[in-house]
């Protein structure tokens, strides 16, 4: 993030959460572990949006 132009960030980021279960089963894990990993990633994305002052985050 050191090279981001903070004047050119979006005001709205949209993310479609898809594939977490497939990711887990592809690694030999149960599907719910993929959903938990996706939730952890989503928390990191949320914190990043807050830190970058991106006012709208849509998750579907």
Order of helices and strands: EHHE
Beta-strand content estimate:
5-15%
CA distance, first residue to last residue = 25 Å
Largest sheet data: 2 strands, parallel
Helix content: 40-55%
Strand order of the largest sheet: 1-2
Ranges where pLDDT stays below 50 over 5 or more residues in a row are none
Structural class: alpha+beta
Q: What is the number of beta strands? A: 2
- Rounded mean pLDDT is 95
Number of helices: 2
User: Radius of gyration over alpha carbons?
Assistant: 14 Å
Name the overall outline: elongated
Description:
Keywords: Transferase. With 60 residues, this protein is α+β, with helices and mostly antiparallel strands. Helices cover 47% and strands 13% of the residues. Strands 1-2 form a two-stranded parallel ribbon. Helix 1 (20-26) crosses helix 2 (31-51). It starts with 11 loop residues before the first strand and ends with a strand. The model has no long low-confidence stretch (mean pLDDT 95).
Features:
60 residues; alpha+beta; two-stranded parallel sheet; 2 helices
């Amino acid at each position: 993030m050191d090279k981001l132009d903070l004047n050119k960030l979006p005001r709205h980021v949209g993310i479609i959460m898809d594939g977490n279960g497939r990711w887990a089963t592809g690694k030999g894990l149960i599907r719910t572990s993929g959903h938990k990993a996706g939730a952890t990633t989503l928390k990191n994305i949320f914190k990043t949006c807050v830190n970058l002052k991106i006012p709208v985050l849509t998750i579907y």
